[in-house]
Specification:
The chain has about 450 residues and is α/β, with parallel strands linked by helices. The chain has 12 helices and 21 strands. Strand 17 (about 340) and strand 18 (about 345-350) form a beta hairpin. The model is unreliable at about 455-460 (pLDDT under 50).
Length: about 450
């Protein structure tokens, strides 16, 4: 008789939990996975996927305007927002079904409900206790709302994805990637957008040139960015809302969205009761092998609050399955992980920002700001920005940054070179594909003079 009910019990059926469970089952492990909402998790159901679908949908507005410069007459085009939301929901239902089928085909036992740890090898769910040799916490994160008076009137990204109709005006509080992305979505859909940030610039943690260039491009699209502004209260004002600011002013809007951060979704899981250490943000502390402070209990993804990206959670989960069930010890390398912001225009980055690289040594900076060929005829006033950060001592390209059309797609390929440790000399030997936007990355030969810094924040670009 087996000592445990399962070899692996996974709590949370998001991308990371599903990846770990399927990989473990493929190696013969007896696996169960518990989910309290819908199988698919944040990325598939409440984040990356639905958000990207809305971005595709609203971006046709710019495509239609661009078409006029190429001789097309497209009269009467309009967005049916409700139809877009309905199409998005159908796609999410399809993906949810695919995830359920994948788990079923992998012979993973699926359990519905909120699972709680009741011991180092025991989980309680629905009044029943299950035992497992290994337990994996993959509960992800959730939107975090600050204690502002009237915050109950605000929606989060979850609510924004399910709006049945568009407001005339929206105030988005927050300067991170989620706030920036939704600002672009609503702006392209024809909503008056005001983005309110506490700091001086959007996208804290990104390269400064990326932050400044994107802000300039967003401003061109009539998105108002109120920097160094704090909201002290939200109150109904007829059919609208009035936001009070720390400086004594007020902002009136029809809808308020907060995107001021996310927190690890670790509440009501019994972690601390069994000795799993959490930090001040209630994130799970893990070592390089995803091991928590309790042997046999592991955690991956956003609930560890390290590098909160879906592909990272998937890689951590698969690595754990390799380690535990395939005698193939595998640790996640969190260095040089590419990421994207699906703003309009989008951002793609991999490696170090200029500021982070300068803390490690001398660097050379290569930068290009230009109008993409497409817009020479479309007439759109949008410029792309590309930047390379090169370690002067080793000639290694340690940072790649881009703002512009297809930036995530382009940087994904360049991430391979950065991960492989390519030098600028090798980079320069690469022949360009012409005419493309991406070719500019291999045509930047002369470093910018230091401490030269273009006035991108004011929209000035050469």
């Amino acid at each position: 008789m087996a000592e445990y009910d399962f070899d692996l019990f996974t709590i949370g059926a998001g991308s990371g939990g599903v990846a770990a469970s399927r990989r473990a089952a493929a190696y013969g492990a007896r696996v169960a996975i518990a989910e309290s909402v819908r199988i698919g998790g944040t990325c598939v159901l409440r984040g990356c996927v639905p958000k990207k679908l809305l971005i595709y949908g609203v971006h046709f507005a710019e495509d239609i305007r661009d078409a006029a410069g190429y001789g097309w007459n497209i009269d009467g085009a309009r967005l049916d927002w409700a139809k877009l939301i309905a199409a998005k929901d159908r796609e999410l239902d399809r993906l949810n079904g695919i995830y359920i089928k994948m788990l079923g085909d992998s012979k993973v036992t699926m359990l519905e409900g909120r699972a709680q740890l009741v011991g180092p090898n025991a989980v309680e769910l629905g009044g029943r206790t299950y035992t497992a040799k290994h337990i994996l916490i993959a509960t992800g994160g959730r939107p975090d709302l600050p204690p502002v008076p009237g915050i109950e009137h605000a929606i989060t990204s979850d609510g924004a994805l399910d709006l049945k109709r568009l407001p005339r005006r929206i105030a988005i509080v927050g300067g991170g990637y989620i706030a920036v992305e939704f600002a672009g979505i609503f702006n392209a859909a024809g909503v008056e957008v005001r983005q309110i940030i506490r700091g001086d610039r959007i996208l804290r943690g990104f390269d400064d040139d990326v932050r400044d260039h994107l802000a300039a491009e967003m401003t061109k699209k009539s998105i108002v960015i109120d920097s160094e502004t704090q909201i002290t209260g939200i109150a109904p004002a007829g059919y609208a809302y009035r936001l009070a600011t720390h400086a004594g002013g007020s902002i009136e809007t029809d809808l308020v969205m907060y995107a001021t951060g996310r927190r690890p979704n670790t509440g009501d899981t019994g972690l601390e009761a069994v000795g799993v250490q959490l930090n001040k943000r209630k994130a799970i502390a893990v070592d390089e092998w995803q091991q928590t402070t309790v042997p046999g209990i592991y955690a991956i993804g956003d609930c560890t609050d390290r590098l909160n990206l879906t592909p990272v959670a998937i890689a951590e989960g698969r690595g754990l399955a390799e380690t535990l069930f395939n005698r193939n010890p595998m640790r996640m390398d969190h260095n040089d992980v590419p990421s994207a912001v699906f703003s309009q225009p989008p951002v793609g980055v991999v490696g170090l920002s200029e500021a982070a690289a300068r803390k490690l040594g001398e660097v050379d900076i290569y930068r290009a700001v230009f109008r993409p060929m497409k817009h020479t005829m479309s007439g759109r006033d949008e410029k792309a920005m590309m930047k390379l950060v090169v370690d002067r001592a080793t000639d290694r390209v340690c940072g790649v940054h881009m703002v512009g059309a297809d930036a995530p797609e382009i940087v994904q390929s360049l991430a391979v070179a950065v991960k492989a440790g390519v030098t600028k000399r090798q980079w320069d030997r690469t022949v360009a594909v012409h005419p493309t936007t991406a070719e500019e990355f291999v045509l930047m030969r002369e470093p910018v003079k230091q401490p030269a810094k273009p006035a991108l924040a004011k929209g000035v670009a050469e």
